[in-house]
Design goal:
single chain, 415 residues, alpha/beta, 6-stranded mixed beta sheet, 15% strand
Length: 415
């Protein structure tokens, strides 16, 4: 039978009737399923059919068929190879079965595990979508060439920005707190300063007034000449042991008043234990006859000391019936104190019956009409000029100087 050319190039099937016997059936070694790679993704897992169990081989039938088809060497070699392959395949199948008993069935599928795996993949997919939505793009021109920032870089930048913002907020909060609390802090500082001052002042007062740390232990006396210093210190010794702030100055005044030669005094506290008393002794200005002796009297009428003879360069006051310390006596001493030292050295006596007729006597027996003690300084200057002029023109001549009117001095000749 002819076939059309150009439609099918497959070789023609051999005609079994021509040979007179059926063609031998070819046998292949059983195929084992491939073990899936462990590194492969779970998504690529598929249900694999169980390996087909090879059909039992009928050796009698095969042998009969082989004997029938043996005619050539090629057929005998093919038959031998097929028998060897079948035996090898049977042995390998037995070994595979034994190994399957000791190894887990990798083709077994757990529905619960597959469900968990599917849920995990879904969660990873959602996280990836969320991260992609939250991830910024590096500024690189247009959006087509922009590159996404990784999650780690984005997290680092976010943390850095958060730290900067937190530090800035903390600084602003501190500035606001300082601004709103400045007045209260100043007020509190003022109160603390005032309280400290009051406390220190109070403690100082307590220590100075009641503490024996500031008690009087030493008395120093200065300015004495005629006054006995030891007696004065002994009179003030009752104050020893008293705090300097609690000294009784009225009692000190009474004790010093017992010394008539002291005209005035000044006390000075020298902490922590010393009292300094500086006295001014009375200075006699005139001598007053008292019997056969002379009393040296100061302007207040206090007898400073007594002398058996008339002291030199000190006038004798003729008070008559007046008393020491009377207005007449005070007027005479005031006039004597107003005289210049050169003129006072020439005065031998002073006399006054009233406060308005003071008369002085000089060593050359000349007299001076002074009058009242008013304008004593001007009268003293006029008297000094008149004495100098008279000594230059008529030395040794006894005259009378009238300076009762300080603007008109008169020199009179005496009889």
């Amino acid at each position: 039978m002819k076939r059309p050319e150009g439609f099918d190039d497959r070789p023609a099937k051999p005609d079994g009737s021509a040979e007179g016997a059926p063609a031998p059936r070819q046998r292949r070694a059983p195929s084992f399923p491939r073990r899936p790679s462990r590194a492969s993704s779970p998504d690529s897992l598929e249900a694999q059919p169980d390996p087909a169990t090879p059909d039992p081989v009928d050796e009698t039938e095969t042998s009969t068929t082989a004997d029938a088809s043996v005619g050539t060497a090629r057929d005998r070699a093919g038959a031998f190879a097929g028998a060897a392959g079948r035996r090898l395949g049977a042995g390998l199948s037995t070994v595979a079965g034994r190994l399957r008993e000791y190894t887990p069935d990798e083709d077994h599928h757990d529905p619960e595990a597959e469900r968990r795996e599917a849920a995990r993949r879904e969660t990873e997919r959602q996280d990836a979508e969320r991260l992609a939505a939250l991830t910024d793009l590096h500024p690189g021109g247009d959006d087509e060439h922009a590159t996404p920032i990784g999650a780690g870089v984005r997290a680092a930048e976010t943390a850095r920005d958060a730290r900067v913002a937190k530090r800035r907020r903390r600084l602003l909060e501190r500035a606001e707190v300082r601004r709103f609390t400045r007045r209260s802090r100043h007020r509190r500082a003022a109160w603390i300063t005032a309280a400290t001052i009051v406390l220190v002042f109070g403690v100082s007062i307590l220590v100075a007034v009641f503490s024996p740390l500031m008690a009087l232990q030493t008395i120093e006396v200065k300015g004495t000449n005629r006054v006995d210093e030891a007696q004065l210190r002994q009179a003030l010794s009752e104050q020893i042991g008293t705090p300097l702030a609690r000294l009784d100055f009225e009692e000190i005044k009474q004790d010093i008043a017992g010394f008539p030669l002291i005209e005035s005094y000044v006390t000075e506290e020298a902490p922590p234990h010393t009292l300094v008393v500086t006295v001014t002794e009375r200075t006699p200005v005139v001598a007053v006859r008292s019997g056969k002796s002379f009393d040296l009297v100061d302007p207040a009428g206090i007898v400073v000391q007594s002398s058996p003879t008339q002291p030199a360069n000190m006038p004798v006051a003729d008070i008559g019936s007046a008393q020491l310390g009377s207005p007449v006596f005070r007027t005479m001493t005031e006039v004597v104190l107003a005289l210049p030292s050169t003129v006072r050295a020439q005065v031998t006596s002073v006399k006054a019956s009233t406060a308005d007729d003071v008369t002085l006597t000089l060593k050359d027996k000349s007299t001076v009409v002074w009058g009242n003690p008013d304008d004593s300084d001007a009268k003293a200057a006029l008297l000094a000029a008149l004495v100098k002029d008279h000594s230059a023109r008529n030395p040794g001549v006894v005259v009378e100087y009238d300076v009762s009117a300080p603007d008109n001095g008169i020199i009179r000749a005496t009889k």
